[in-house]
Amino acid sequence: MVKVNQMAVLQVATITLVVLGSLVQVAKAVNAWDVTTWTPSHATFYGDDSGAATMGGACGYGNLWWRGYGLATAALSDTLLNNGLTCGACFEIKCNITGGESGKWCIQSNPSIKITATNQCPPNFDRPTDNGGWCNPPRTHFDLSLNMFRRLAQTQAGIIPISYRRTRCIKTGGIRFYLGGNAHFNLVLVYNVGGWGDVMKMQMRGTKTGWITMKRNWGQNWESSINYTGQSLSFIVTLGNGQVRVIRNLTPTVWYFKQTYEADTNF
């Protein structure tokens, strides 16, 4: 009969569990849009001093001045934008002075900037990823407003090496909801979201309905086909990190489409 050393088996099992646990943790940390440690990437810029070219965009915010984002924004490559779910997230970026030849254009004091993701930097499959196809998968890339690029480097560089990390969004005031659509098709834009910034789930309720899980239409526009006319509206907002805010009775019973309503809370 073979004698088994139970203590040795227990130690092996414990080590196995620790290793497996470590692998799970690594797997959770691979999402490019969620990294909180400095991570290498590259940045370019688009538009001119007016920032007109940065308005609108894939996240659905429209006029970024009206929404409170201004020019502290960036268009993200698809690897970072995550099919639009990263819209509203904030990142800290700094120029990588030691990042080769193009690093010489970095501002020598090496400041960092904080931006909100508001647009998509589309891939250009006619160009290689290292020569014009900067936003082609699987690259991570930030296409900054000209104003923000200048805070990091001289514009002669065109493209610069950077380091980036996810950071908390600091917003003034409460979460804001722009009520678009019509009585039979509600299209709600949620913006000015603090904390992790990226809304992953939206629920809506009228005073005569239960909670309805909304469908993301595009960017941070969320839809519901329920007729809420004559009902006060409430929302549940869930971020990518799992944080939740319940906003009860955001509107009075008489409310209007094409109006913005602000909650008294944020993340």
What is this entry, summarized?
By secondary structure, this protein is mainly beta.
SSE blueprint and pairings:
Blueprint: H1 6-28, E1 39-46, E2 73-76, H2 78-81, E3 90-95, E4 112-120, E5 141-145, H3 146-150, E6 160-167, E7 176-182, E8 185-191, E9 199-206, E10 212-213, E11 215-218, E12 221-224, E13 233-239, E14 244-247, E15 259-262
Parallel strand pairs: 1-5, 2-4
Antiparallel strand pairs: 1-6, 2-5, 3-4, 3-6, 7-8, 7-15, 8-12, 9-10, 9-13, 11-12, 13-14
Query: Given the C-alpha coordinates, what overall shape results?
Result: elongated
Order of helices and strands: HEEHEEEHEEEEEEEEEE
Widest beta sheet: strand line-up: 1-5-2-4-3-6
Low-confidence regions:
6-10, 12-27
At the fourth level of CATH, the homologous superfamily of the largest domain is RlpA-like domain
Derived structural class: mainly beta
Tally of discrete structural domains: 2
Helix content: 10-25%
Rounded to the nearest angstrom, the distance between the terminal CA atoms is 63 Å
Give the tally of β-strands: 15
> In the CATH hierarchy, what is the architecture of the largest domain at level 2?
Beta Barrel
Radius of gyration: 22 Å
Subcellular location: Secreted, Cell wall; Membrane
Keywords: Cell wall, Cell wall biogenesis/degradation, Membrane, Secreted, Signal
Domain Expansin-like EG45: 56-174
Signal peptide: 1-29
